[in-house]
Amino acid sequence: MQNILITGAAGDVGRRLRRLLKDVYRLRISDIRTPGDLAPGEEFVAADLADLAQVEKIVAGIDGIVHLGGYSVEGPWETILQSNIVGCYNLFEAAYRANVKRVVFASSNHAVGFYPRAQKIRTDVTLRPDSRYGISKAFGESVGAFYADKHGLRVTCLRIGNVNDAPIDARRMSIWLAPEDLVQLVRIGLEHPDIRFEIFYGCSDNEAAWWDNSNARRYGYRPTGKAEEHRAQAMEAQSRIPPDPVGDRYQGGAFCSDEYDANRKT
Ligand code: 15L
User: Looking at CB atoms within 10 Å, which of 23, 104, 112, 159 has the fewest?
Assistant: First the structure.
């Protein structure tokens, strides 16, 4: 059984993965704060990702890492810088020093959020981040590529849409990722023998998808979640959300319209 570290274990996605992976791997979990739902027998080690010495402690003796840690939405630059830029670099550097074999990096759809919804994109498109948060995910993908190419780490970046029990609005009909499908993607990253450096979209089998996820399918990904089965509830929720002329045009939604002033007079 592989020794797997999950960072960001106190967050929503971390809590779900801990439950879904607890019988698959021997888990060590970490976060800056102790998870409120820590179960007896769970190995928890607190760490601030911005401190390399602390990160070196949590990766010791680990075979693979699921890196969810960091700040998971838009935030002030100083917060993003410490949590997602310095923190992400430290994670890969510590993994390399400790001879960890694999890293699955939770990237985000916000690394490519400024692609229009009308365009279906593959994983090899130019990055178009929609926020400081999105920039940090684009950075993380680059760090992953570097450690894979230069140091032989096996790295999988998941451009995650929205992990939830069901899609919660019209935008999430396109980018919803059922938790069980996330598990499939994570397991491909941690186990597939041919992984060197790959990028997959983290979405289920959604009819309205904006992403061509054939690269994940090539590795055996067979998503079972179908957003279409939840259309009525998602559209009912959408009817209570005010229109967002910029956000509704782009894949990243409100992350794009937030602070948007591209049309200002120069
Ligand atoms: C993300 O990357 C965030 O971590 C999550 O909280 C959601 O906002 C999600 O994107 C989304 O786009 O719905």
Answer: 23
